[in-house]
Specification:
Helix content: 55-70%
Largest sheet: 2 strands, antiparallel
Number of helices: 14
Strand content: under 5%
Order of helices and strands: HHHHHHHHEEHHHHHH
Distance between the termini: 89 Å
Number of strands: 2
Shape: globular
Strand order of the largest sheet: 1-2
Mean pLDDT: 86
Structural class: mainly alpha
Low-confidence stretches: 1-9
Amino acid sequence: MSLLDMSSGGPSLWAPEWLPRLPQRLVEMLLQYFGAPEWLVTTAGWITAAATVVGVFLGGFALLSLVERKTLARVQNRLGPNRAGWFGILQPVADGIKMLTKEDIVPAKAEWLLHLAAPILIVMPSILALGVIPYGREWTPVPLELGLLFFFSVGAFTELAVFMAGWASGSKFPMLGAMRAISQMVSYELPLIITTVGVVMITGSLALSDIVEHQVGFHLGFIPKWNIFTPWGFSAGIVFYIASIAEANRCPFDLPEGESEIVAGHMTEYSGFKYALFFMGEYLGLFAISGLGITLFLGGWQAPLPGLGFVPSWIWFFAKLVVVIMSYLWIRATFPRVRIDQLMRFAWLCMLPMALLTIPAAGIWVFTANPDGSHGILGWLTTVPLLLIPWIIITIIFNRRISPATRSYTFADS
């Protein structure tokens, strides 16, 4: 096999579309050249592909930690990190060195083994979830037929790791913080999962690559056939986006990190590199849930306009990822943190009903389709009222009756 061609008559190894898989292909070709058995070639290829994804997103984690602090500083009219390196570019390196050199303190009453395992287990689900997302036409690290099911299955380990961190710390504050974090994650995981049911109904597959392929093409020659541009997809995408903010513990739903109430939640008794691992897991989880939302509703690696197919598909995916991540930063810089009662009411009384409504809306959308697969005016006339009217009713009820009243304070006379 030539180093210039993937195979006889195949695409060039150095083509921009194949660039993310270059390390994997080079390792496989090198082992084949030395006559390694097929199982070793396949295993080494998977390991290299996983290492590539981990390396890319660990670099993204370092970059995002700087971009977020600079963005928030810009919104708040201050400078942000500007000492380490030019324009503060080396601040993530300085933070990493600081975390590695800080003392690791374990409380006397803590369960040592579980206290050590919790930060590791909170990082692993995010890394595993990143492995099944299709980042490009030729770049799906682990193409699973049940990729969507695998994504949510490994994500369930996060709740276990959070509970383990709070319980193993041997203190009341981490335990209270862990229970509050788990209640939030479970509450918003339900609408998050339910909104994906409509996508599975429309696509007929749990493979994430098939979901992207189903969104190929354009309506009227210029409108992408992404799920977000359908009535049920728009409603499901909005619910998914809001629930993903809560799942990623981002403001205004960052209750697990309510320093003014429970110190630092389940991370209170952690220090040094263990403490940094919790934030690494949070940012990697943010990448994973954003990538899943892009795959389900924004066409994955599909180009947004016709005639742009010459751009490598993985560039479109990461361009969409940048837009979604920046919207998270914008929301964090804009909205204040909500109270725990507001958080839970919003999840169960607003998000969950609207998520459930996307399932019949997706079913009606399927049955009203034309024989050629296109959708006429009938689908819009039936699904839009089904979703819009409950949205309006729930919004009015939530704002007028369910939302807590304004508090009044009475000060004691001196």
